[in-house]
Here is the input.
Amino acid sequence: MPPSVLSAVQIAVTLGLVAWMITGFTPLPGRWLRWKMFCRATFTIITLTGTTKDGRTEPVNVYDYLSPGSFILGPPQLQTILDHLTHSGRYDQIDGHGHVLSARGEQPVEVREGRVVL
Here is the structure.
């Protein structure tokens, strides 16, 4: 092959790979991190407020109740932590709002009276 043809093929292949990599890491509308490593994970980003027995309100950080190093929290795990906090008597009521990020895209999530509502 002549050197100019080889260079043109190398440039075309390189540009094709760069375009493929850019589209692979670019979110589609309603999608978050299309890369396969993230396709099975579910992340919850939420702001919670707990009401104590004496009527005071305070912010609740659910990540304080996960094992160290844990950061993947789906709605079922969030509900388990909320149940623990209300049944243990720490809070009478917990409310909040946020987003769930998963392979299905971004969805709003609310916590009303200690129940996770998608």
In short: The chain has two helices and five strands. The mean pLDDT is 82.
